[in-house]
Structures are given as C-alpha cells and as structure tokens.
C-alpha cells in the first residue's frame, strides 16, 4: 500500500502538519489550498488511517499523523540542509574549475588565464588539460570550459567568442642574413619553410604584399603538428614559420624573430572561443573564468612573456 504514496503528497502533508492549517501551509509552500486538501485525503485513503482531527480550531495530528510526521519530517529537514549546502557550494568562488584547451594554443592561453585568476582568487583551483582538436568534442561532463581556436564546432554547447588571432610569416635574423629579406610573396617560394598540419592537412600561408593577399608557396624543410616546434625551428634560424602574432610576441620584442611582408587583413583572422554547457554559466566560478577571458583576452594572450627566462642574465 505505502509504495503508492507520492513524494509530493508527503511534502504537502509535512507543510500542513507543521502549520496546523491548510491556509497557512498554502501561503508558505505556494501550493493551492485545494491541492493540499486533496493530498491529505489521498494519503489517508492510501494509508487507511486518519492523519488529522478536523475542528473549528484547525487541524490536529492524530497518533498516526504524529508518527508519520516524526519519520518524514527528519527526511525533509535533511533534504533542506543538503539543498542549502549545495547552494552555498555553488555560490562560492572557492573550488575547482576544469578547463580544456585545443591543442593549438591551449598552453599559452589557459596558462596565462589560470595564473592570473589564481593570483586574484586564492580559493580557486584549476584542472587543465589539452584537447586534440582533430578529435570529436568531448562530453560536457568532462570539462567546465573549453578554449577552442578556429571555427566553432556545431554542438549543443554555448560558444562565446573571446577574440581573434592574426597570423603572419616570421623568420630569424640569422636566416635573413643568409638568404635575404623577402619583399614579396614570390620571394618566399624558394625559401625553407615550416609546414604545420592539422588533421593531416597543411595549413595554408595567407600572405599579404603590395600585390594583395595570396596563398604563399615555400620549400618545405620541416613538417610539424605543433606550433611550439614550428617556433623552435624558426627561432633557430632554420626556416620561416607561419605563426599567430600573439604566439611570437616575446620573440619579436627580443629581436629573435622578424615579421615578414604586410600584416594580414582583419577579416582573415581566426576566432578563439570559450565553449561550455548552458548550465555551467550559472556556476560563479565558471562565469568568472569566462568573463575574465572575454574582458582581458588581448592582454592574457601576451602574458607572461617567459618570466622564467628573465631570471637569467
């Protein structure tokens, strides 16, 4: 018999029993008086007991009603405590945020952002992982926020644009001393270059000179699928690399790399996205991370400028 009892009827019974009035119970719970009365009647019919003595003074619990309240009231108190604890945990900025980064620039962008946030909010902790961009989008349960470079994937996730990344050809002064500085896209044709492949496809070099923008040809000296490796070869003076501007900001400032030809058009820049489940944005920690990335994107992608290197003369 008791297996047919519905949770909502027990909940309505507890409200009525603790207030001693259908009217007061309805005001507190927001449940219509008629619904509360129907729940009580249904419980009494299912349990085959009388739960209240009804009189002009209100509703008084019977022995059966008191026994039911004693057992169910504790359960509802525990539920309320658990719900309050969950709300406190949810509203707190203390706790962990799990961030994935697509393989292209995850280390640079996520490292700078989490370092900045960790210093501003000591109660935050981070779990960071790199996400191979040539694999399907991971399940939402595996991350709170994914930083993705390129065309936003089609999914049920929310995609919020953080900013744009511009590309350009870069070369070491050592290489330019040996081979000369190219003045046009055609000048690069016979020069050694570093091919970056994504999903097995070589990334095109969209180069800009006085004659306009064209896809540049080059003599493939190295083929890589990691931008850090491409930058290593370029700084070493072995070949020209086609790299995002922020990724070589420090090397250009230090004179280790020199930008070639003209800057690409703004329309050719690649977008960077924060991807997350819609429900995740209700979490204040996740919201803080995403808002910080959006508001400080241009600054964060140029940070920290290899602070460790500066410790040495």
Your description of this structure?
It comes from Paracoccus zhejiangensis. One of its GO terms (molecular function) is DNA-binding transcription factor activity. This is LysR family transcriptional regulator. The chain is an alpha/beta fold. It is built from ten helices and 15 strands. Strands 7, 8, 9, 12, 13 and 14 form a six-stranded mixed β-sheet that branches. Strands 4-3-5-15-6 form a five-stranded mixed β-sheet, covered by helices on one side. Strands 1-2 form a two-stranded antiparallel ribbon. A hairpin with a 2-residue loop joins β10 (205-209) and β11 (212-216). α1 (7-19) crosses α2 (22-29) and α1 crosses α3. The longest helix has 29 residues, at 63-91.
Short description, anyone?
The chain is 37% helix and 26% strand.
Largest sheet: 6 strands, mixed
The CATH homologous superfamily name of the largest domain equals Periplasmic binding protein-like II
Question: How helix-rich are the residues, as a percent range?
Answer: 25-40%
Name the assembly state.
single chain
Which geometry do the CA atoms define?
A: rod-shaped
C-alpha termini separation: 82 Å
CATH topology of the largest domain: D-Maltodextrin-Binding Protein, domain 2
Order of helices and strands: HHHEEHEHEEEEHEEEEEHEHEEHH
Number of domains: 3
Chart the SSEs and their pairings:
Elements: H1 7-19, H2 22-29, H3 33-47, E1 52-55, E2 58-61, H4 63-91, E3 95-102, H5 106-120, E4 124-131, E5 145-149, E6 158-165, E7 167-171, H6 173-179, E8 192-198, E9 201-202, E10 205-209, E11 212-216, E12 219-224, H7 227-235, E13 240-244, H8 249-253, E14 258-259, E15 270-276, H9 284-295, H10 297-300
Parallel strand pairs: 3-4, 3-5, 8-12, 8-13
Antiparallel strand pairs: 1-2, 5-15, 6-15, 7-13, 7-14, 8-9, 10-11
Helix pairs in contact: 1-2, 1-3, 1-4
């Amino acid at each position: 018999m008791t297996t047919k009892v519905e949770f909502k009827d027990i909940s309505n019974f507890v409200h009525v029993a603790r207030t001693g009035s259908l009217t007061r119970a309805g005001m507190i719970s927001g449940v219509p008086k008629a619904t509360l009365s129907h729940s009580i009647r249904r419980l009494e019919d299912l349990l085959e007991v009388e739960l209240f003595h009804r009189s002009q003074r209100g509703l008084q619990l019977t022995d059966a009603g008191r026994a039911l309240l004693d057992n169910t009231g504790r359960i509802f108190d525990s539920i309320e405590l658990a719900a309050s604890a969950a709300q406190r945990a949810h509203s707190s900025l203390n706790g962990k945020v799990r961030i994935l980064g697509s393989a292209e620039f995850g280390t640079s962008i996520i490292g700078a952002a989490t370092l900045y946030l960790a210093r501003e909010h000591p109660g935050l902790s981070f779990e960071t992982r790199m996400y191979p961009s040539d694999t399907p989008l991971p399940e939402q349960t595996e991350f709170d926020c994914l930083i993705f470079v390129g065309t936003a994937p089609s999914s049920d996730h929310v995609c919020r644009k953080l900013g744009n990344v511009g590309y350009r050809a870069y070369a070491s002064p050592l290489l330019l001393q040996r081979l000369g500085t190219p003045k046009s896209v055609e000048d690069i044709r016979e020069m050694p270059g570093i091919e970056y492949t994504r999903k097995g496809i070589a990334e095109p070099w969209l180069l800009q000179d006085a004659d306009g923008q064209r896809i540049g040809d080059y003599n493939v000296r190295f083929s890589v699928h990691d931008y850090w490796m491409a930058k290593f070869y370029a700084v070493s003076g072995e070949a020209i690399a086609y790299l995002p501007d922020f990724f070589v900001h420090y090397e250009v400032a230090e004179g280790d790399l020199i930008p070639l030809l003209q800057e690409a058009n703004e329309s050719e820049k690649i977008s960077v996205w924060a991807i997350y489940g819609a429900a995740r944005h209700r979490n204040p920690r996740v919201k803080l991370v995403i808002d910080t990335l959006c508001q400080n994107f241009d600054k964060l992608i140029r940070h920290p400028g290899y602070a460790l290197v500066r410790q040495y003369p």
